[in-house]
Amino acid sequence: MPEDSINLRLVFQFLRNYWSLILGITGLVTVLGITFSILAAPKYTAVTSVYIETRASNVVDVKAVLSGFGSDDKLLKSQIEIIGSNAVAKRVIEEHDLKNSPLFKLEPSKLSEILSKITGEPPVAPSLEQRVLNGLTVNLNRNTTVVDLSYQAHSPEMAAELANGFAEAYLADRLATKYEAIRQASEWLSVRLSELGVKVRASEQAVEQFRSEYNLQVAGGGTISEKQIATLNQQLVFARTKTAEAQARVDQIEKVRVRGGSTSSFADAAQSAVITQLRAKASEVARKEAALTVKYSHKHPAVVSVRSQLADLNQQIEKELQRIVDTAQNELAVAKRREASISDSLDQLRDVTNTENHAQVYLRELIREAAANRTLYESFLARLKETQEFEKMDSVSSRILSRAEVPSNASFPNKRLFLVVSVVLGLIFGTVLALILEIFDNTLKSKEDVEGRIGLPLFSQIPLLDEFASSSRFGSFFSFLGGNNTHGSRGAKSDAASNKAINEFASSNPLSHYAESIRALRSRVKFTRLDDPIKTLLITSAIPGEGKSTVSRNLAHYAAKAGERVLFIDADMRRQLSADTPKDANEKNLADVLMGDVTVADAIRHEEGSKFYYLPAPSHRELWETAELLSSKAMKTLLEGARKSFDLIIIDSPPTIPLIDSRVLSHIVDGTVLVVSWNHTDGGLVEQAKELLDQTPGKTLGVVLNSFDVSKARLNRHQASYGYGYYK
After folding, report:
1. For residue 602, which of 590, 612, 584, 611 has the smallest C-alpha distance?
2. What are the C-alpha distances in Å from 294 to residues 285, 299, 303?
3. Helix segments in 513-563, DSSP class H
C-alpha cells in the first residue's frame, strides 16, 4: 500500500482502542455546551438595512454626474467604519439617554476587583461608547451598497431601538458632516478667491507696464523687430543663392580661359540664340568659301569676298561672347553688393533686437505668472460656484431601506447550534487527545516492537485472563508502592482458592489459548540451547505489576504436569507470592536456607500428586540484605544441588529496575526471560531493564508479552496469528 494512502485497518484499530475516550470527551463537552446554553442570559438581535450612496451628488458638472455611477469599495469600507465610530455612538447615547440605562451600567467583575487589589491600580473599565458599540455588527451585502446594522441586546425592545438609532445617527452625522465641510470649503474658497483676484490684477498690470517701458509691440504673436529679422533672413538666403550662381558662372569662364580654351565652350554661350544664328551663318559662308576655293584660286575676288564675310561673322561671335562674359561678371558684382547690403541691415537690426530679447525674457516670465494666476483664479471661482450650488441641497442620498422590528425570539444562545457545535468540538478534542496519546504511546504491542526495539526474540504472547483480570490496569505501579498487586495474582484480598486457580490455569485448562501460550514459552526455553539445555530459568520484569509471578507459576505447574520434575523458587523476598494455604509464621523459607538455619530438603514443599516443588520466600519477615543473600555462595550451592535433582528450576525474582535482586540472580542462572505487559509497559523501561540484565552477556533469552488482549489483536494484521480464533 502506498505510504500516502489511508490504512483503514489502522484507523479502525485507533477508533477501537480509543472509542471510549473520544465518546467520553464528546459527552463532557456536549454537556458543558448544553449547560451553558441553558444558563446563559438570552440576547436578541434586530436588523436595520441602510442604503449607502457612493455617487457624489453634483448638479453643476454633468460629466461628474454621469461618471459617478458604480460602487467604491474603499468608500463603502470607510462608511462602515463611520457607522461603528465613537462619534456615531455618542449621538446614539445622547438621543436615547443610554447614560441612565440599566442595561449599560458597568459592574466590575470579581476577577477585575481581585486584580486591582493585587496590582494596587483601579480596574480598567471600557468606556460607555465602547460598551454600546459591543452590541453593533455591520455587514455589507454582497454586490450591493446596502449594509445591515445588527444590534444585539438583552432586551428585544432595546435591540430594535438601537438598531434604528444607529442608522438614524449615521445619516444625521453624514448630513452634518457634509454641511460643515461645505461651509468650511465655501469660507476658505471665498478668502482664497479674494487673494487670487489681487494677484491676477497685479500680475497683468506688471506685464503691460513692462511692455510699454521697453516698447515691446506685439504683432502676430511676436515683436516687429522679430518679424523684420525673419524677413531679412529669408532675403539674405536668397541673395546668397544668387551670388553663388553668379560666382559659379564666372568661375567656369575663368577655368576655360586658364586652360586656353575658347569662351564659346561654357554653358551660357552654348545656350545663346544670337551666337547660334551667327555660327550657322559662319558655317554656311565657310562651306561657300570651300566650294569657291576648289573652283577658283585663293585670290579670286569671289573667294576673297566670301572670306571677308566669314571674318566679319567670327568677329560678331567674339563680341557676343565677350558681352556674355561681361554680363556674368556684372551680375556677380551686383549680387555681392546686394548680399552685403542685406547683411549690414540684418546686423543693425540684430543689435536692436538683442536689447529687446533681454527684456523679452523677463516679459515672458511676467506673462506666465499672470496666466497661471488667471487660471488658478478661474478654477477657484468655478469651484466656489459649484460649492454654493451644492450647499443648497438639503438631503443626503443614503437612506434607510427597512427599519428594525422588535424581535420575538432570542438570537443567543441557539440551543441547536450549541448542541451541534459541542458535539463537533467534543469529537475534535477527543480525537486530538486520542491522537496525542497514540503518538506518545511507547508501549510494546507486537513482535516487531519487541524484536525491533528491545533486540530480543518474542517467546510467547500470553493472553489476558478476563475472569481474573483487574478492573483497572493503571494502578499496577502504584499498588506496588502501597503493597497491593492489581493483577490478581498478588492481591492482598485474593484468597487461596483464587490464587490457586490463577497460578494453575494453564495446567487446569490444557486446551485453552492460555495453556497454548505457556506451551509455546516452554518450547522456546527448551529449544533455545540444544547443546546446553537451560535448567535454571530466571523470570523477571522491568517494573511491578507485569504478571511475572503468574506466568512463572503457570509455567512451573504446566512443566510439572507434563512430566518434568520442577522446582519453583520464590526469590521475591520483598513481596512473596501468596501460597495455596494460610501462611505459617514458622514456615521454612528461602531466607532460612541461605542463612543456614535449615536445609534445602526441610524448606522445599511438595505439591501432592504432581512433580511440582517450590521453595517459598519469607512471609512475615522484613529483609534488607536480600541482594547479599541471593548473590551468596549458599545460593549458588542451592542451585547446583537442585540441578542434580530437578529437570527445571524456575526462579521468580523481583522487578529489575526498582530492585537489584534480579540483576544479581542473572549471573548464576542459565537464562532470563523478561515479562512485559502488552500495551501497558513503556518500551523505554524494558530497554533499561535489558541493559541492566546484559551485564551478564548472553543470559537474557527473550521477552514474553503478558495480558495480551486477543479481541484487540484481531484488529491488527501484524499481531494476529494462527490459533487466536481457534481457542475459546
Report:
1. 590
2. 14, 12, 10
3. 513-526, 548-561
End-to-end, the C-alpha distance of the chain in Å comes to 33
560 Cβ neighbours under 8 A, 6+ residues apart: 507, 566, 607, 610, 611, 612
Cβ(166)–Cβ(152) under 8 Å? no
Q: Helices 86-96 and 73-83 meet at what angle, rounded to 10?
A: 40
| Burial class for 424, CB neighbours closer than 10 Å (0-12, 13-18, 19+) | middle
- Among residues 538, 544, 540, 509, the alpha carbon closest in space to that of 525 is found at 538
For residue range 425-434, what is the model confidence (pLDDT) as tens digits?
999 999 999 8
Q: Which amino acid is at 114?
A: I
**What CA–CA distance (Å, rounded) separates 675 from 691?**
15
Spatial contact of 340 and 235, defined as CB atoms under 8 Å apart = no
Q: What is the mean pLDDT of residues 638-665?
A: 93
Q: Is the pLDDT confidence value at 218 over 70?
A: no
Alpha-carbon distances, residue 122 vs 51, 103, 118, 129 (angstroms): 43, 23, 10, 20
Give me the percent of the chain exceeding a pLDDT of 90. 26
Cell readout for 482 is 502501597
- The angle subtended at Cα 221 by Cα 216 and Cα 222, nearest 5°, is 40
Q: Alpha-carbon Rg of the chain, whole angstroms?
A: 63
- Beta bridge partners of residue 443, listed in sequence order: 682
For 141-249, strand residue ranges (E) read: 146-153, 218-219, 222-223
Q: Are 59 and 385 in contact (CB under 8 A)?
A: no
Q: How far apart are CA 552 and CA 545, in angstroms?
A: 13
Assigned C-alpha cell, 555: 509455567
The mean pLDDT of 467-475, rounded to a whole number, is 49
Q: Report whether 200 contacts 373 (CB < 8 A).
A: yes
Contact 287, 298 (CB under 8 A): no
- The Cα–Cα gap between 728 and 724 comes to 8
How many other β-carbons are positioned within 10 Å of the β-carbon of residue 480? 20
Alpha carbon distance 26, 18 (integer Å): 12
For 92-136, the pLDDT digits (tens) are: 999 998 888 888 877 666 666 677 667 767 666 788 889 899 999
For 129-207, list the strands marked E by DSSP: 136-140, 146-153
d(CA 593, CA 629): 10
Contact at 8 Å (CB) between 456 and 448?
Answer: no
More confident of the two residues 325 and 621: 325
Percent of the chain surpassing pLDDT 70: 78
Answer whether 53's CB lies under 8 Å from 145's CB. yes
pTM: 0.52
Q: 513-526 and 548-561 helices cross at what angle (nearest 10)?
A: 80
Query: Is residue 534 a contact partner of residue 670, using CB atoms and an 8 Å limit?
Result: yes
Q: Tell me the pairing of strands 218-219 and 222-223.
A: antiparallel
Neighbours of 519 (CB within 10 A): 17
